[in-house]
Amino acid sequence: MSVLRITDLRKRYGAVHALDGASLEARSGEVHALLGENGAGKSTLIKILSGAVRHDGGSIALDDRELRIRSPRDAVRAGIGTAFQELSLIPDLTVAQNLFFGREPLGRLRGVRRGRLEQEAAALLEQLGIERIAATALVRTLPIAQRQLVEIAKAAARRPRVLILDEATSALSPAEGTWLLELARRTAREGAIVIFISHRLAEIRDVADRMTVFRAGVDVGAGAIDQIDDDEAVRLMLGRRVERLYPPRREAVGEEVVLAARGLTLGTRLAGVDLDLRRGEILGVGGLQGQGQRELFNALAGATPARGRIELEGREIHPTSPRRALAEGIALVPEDRQREGLLLDLSIRDNIALPVIERISRAGFVDARAETRMVAEVAERLQITAGSWAREAGSLSGGNQQKVVLAKTLVSGARVLLLYDATRGVDVGTKSEIFTLLRELAGSGMATLFYSTDLQELTNVCDRVAVMADGRIGGILAGPQLTEENVLRLSVGGSLPPVAAEAVR
Amino acid sequence: MTDRRQWLRRNQATLLAYAMAIALFLVTSAFAHGFATWNHTRVLLVQACFIGIVGLGQTFVILGGGVDLSVPWMLNATATLLTLWCHGQAANLVWVLPVLLAMAVIVGLVNGLGVTLLGVSPIIMTLGVNGVLQGALLLITNGGQSPTAPHAIQQLATGNVAGIPIALLVWAAVALIAWLLLSKMSLGRQLYATGTNARVAYLSGVRVGRVTVLSYVISALASALAGVLLAGYVGEAYLGMGDVYLFSSVAAVVIGGASILGGRGHYVGTVAGALILTLLAALLPILNLNPAALQVVYGFAILLTVGLASLRLGGT
Ligand SMILES: Nc1ncnc2c1ncn2[C@@H]1O[C@H](COP(=O)(O)OP(=O)(O)OP(=O)(O)O)[C@@H](O)[C@H]1O
Ligand SMILES: [Mg+2]
User: Inter-chain contact A358–B2, Cβ cutoff 8 Å?
Assistant: First the structure.
């Protein structure tokens, strides 16, 4: 049996102590969960273990042998395979090339044999149980969930002794999530150490044997999974309790339709979507991955215009560009924060102010004071832990980056929010804040369309949930009908139990 | 505290460029007699203003994620047509200058629309436009000599006001405009956003196409202005007079700390870049080096600054 022992690890970024003496011990055969609020240092630890960054102090030992990890190569040699939170794939290479990057099967004259590369990649994907991804596809063209699957496959491909999954479920659909949990369990059973990072407590309870909790770069608790209940885990993470993750729904949502879509069509992705989004409601969108949810959001936000009719408060509008949609008061949190949501090299302030930069300018000159006030306000609201608004957005932890994207839509003064997985990677504490905020906004008339890969979130946050299948709305669930089970049923094209069926609109 | 550290880190390359410019000036002064006098410094600064002004346009284009290689013949065309159409008569400037201005706007639009609407890569598009301008100019002039520049233009490029060269005042004025645009105005923010990640900018409501086109128009206008000044400075226009600015304008931007990939840098840095390149050119005769060595020296200057800038000051 082998043991991974991390002792007193330290890492500083300028004035930020990302890790401040963190320790963790994990044994082979176990799935070890790592918990902590956004910015607690989880990914930093992972990056150190994988050789992506170097630590300032502390030690890492596997089987009582000190590991010296100075490069990704060292990590691979030590048997560490990592699925990174922000993915490490090269967009312009194919799935196969990414999977075997740096260890391609060589032919004569050491040329890479493409055919064989693709065969082996396909075999690997199949063996892991990943369907629907062609080994020849360019990674750039894949939606984020599929990229996430490729990242996982890449980490698992070399049968590592330590498999690290950094928020690998956050972009996956429930079914794929279940698949990953099974993969984690199986890998552990076969004798490896699995380190599993997630903000979803249910998932952790489901898969992990032991857990370690980080707060502000230090481990503040560790133990077997059944020794630490959810409340205790949250208290360790945040240093306080979260009374309730999901705020109560409003009793009655008005009937007034704010945003209506009729017959939205886009190639084979959207096959005539009809949708009514009412004032003050949070309307969830569910279904299996890739049933047109992304296209629906993009169409409404003007990012990928579709055919059909869109009405805002009874008036037909033509959101042919995001700019137009924004001008109508429709704001989108896009799927991929790193490639669609954030300017990673620019400051937090520049990012948040960008959608409204013209509005807060007079004669072309930016009103710096108004800007700072606005940014400070929304950043506080969303608890973006940054220290300085001049910091580059790319240096924030994953969850904090996500909050910046959300902040952009909040400052835009939107009447309709299109939130595509807006809480991906956000910690429990902030999630509850965000849900409370969304409820408040709804209370003052905001209409919100809410997509999430997290079933629990869908059924607990939303007033109604529209389940998509094959580019259409397969059914809408509300009231007592709104259960995880029913969402799943509609997702796979099943029907609801007969008694309840008539309540479906 | 952290704000200051952020600021230092972000502006590290620019600060280095200024340090290098000053060091270069001091070292040269120590070896060459009369180098550091105001009279000579003034000459150097006026020489720097040509790279500086062409580099202004180049800065905007590069920040937006492109590059403008039509700079040399844009400059050349402006200078040549100015002298040709004016026939030495300052009175003709009344119509010649507006026509040249309009021409610059058109060239900028063609570059910008080619890149944004047709999706041609900036290098190909602007190189093509450069070739067209060169060919057209050869046809128009038949390769012959053009008349001298009108006196008013010569005065503009070589005259002084209260001991300060007018050309320098022109440079200061456009530099101020550039600084306002980049640092204080929404256009600047949108330009940085576009150069950093055009998709994100687009999704955030930025008119990416418009911003990009505008950057090419600014560049063409800057080259035209430099063309007018250079014609006045030399006293005439000749074919090939803009050629050196292809390389030096891009070099000034890069030495000034901008990323050639866009989204990072500032005109403040380009000014330092222009000064460094000018000082290096002035250094050659002092060192008894062949003028042909200039390109080599420029090349080393780029490598040196880019190398220095990539060393992180004050740790990671
Ligand atoms: N390149 C960097 N430059 C500066 N600070 C950084 C950098 N990378 C990370 N940090 C900081 O280090 C701290 C820890 O970040 P880390 O990414 O490890 O958090 P995390 O626990 O993974 O959070 P999340 O749950 O949001 O993913 C944060 O405060 C973050 O802002
Ligand atoms: Mg993380």
Answer: no
Would the CB atoms of B200 and A390 count as touching at under 8 Å?
Answer: no
Counting the structural domains of chain A, the total is 3
The answer to whether the Cβ–Cβ distance between A345 and B264 falls below 8 Å is yes
If one residue of A49, A397, A406, A426 were mutated to test the ligand 1 pocket, choosing by the most ligand atoms within 8 A of its CB, it would be A397
**Rounded to a whole number, what is the distance in Å from the CA of B173 to chain A's nearest CA?**
18
Last residue of a domain, one of A185, A203, A238: A238
Q: Is A184 touching ligand 1 by the criterion CB < 6 Å?
A: no
What distances in angstroms separate CA B65 from CA A150, A317, B13, B71, B258, one per listed residue? 30, 32, 19, 16, 11
Q: CB distance B186–A366 less than 8 Å?
A: yes
Boundary-marking domain end, from A216, A238, A260: A238
A408: containing domain: 337-413
Q: How far is the CA of A431 from the centre of ligand 1 (A)?
A: 18
Q: A119 and A211 share a domain?
A: yes
Model confidence, pTM: 0.89
Q: Would you say the CB of residue A48 lies under 6 angstroms from ligand 1? A: no
Same domain, A120 and A17: yes
Q: Evaluate: CB of A383 within 6 angstroms of ligand 1.
A: no
In the CATH scheme, what is the code of domain B43-302? 1.10.3470
Chain B residue with minimum CA distance to A54: B316
**pLDDT tens profile B214-224:** 999 999 999 99
**CB within 8 Å of B227: residues ≥ 6 apart:** B74, B75, B76, B77, B78, B79, B82, B242
Give residue A108's pLDDT band: very low, low, confident or very high (50, 70, 90).
low
Residues A252 and A401 in one domain: no
Residue A151 burial (C-beta neighbours within 10 Å; 0-12, 13-18, 19+)? buried
- Whether residue A503 lies inside any domain: the answer is yes
Length of chain B: 316
Q: ipTM for the complex?
A: 0.89
Token output for A376:
């400070």
Residues A256 and A344 in one domain: no
- Domain-embedded: residue A51: yes
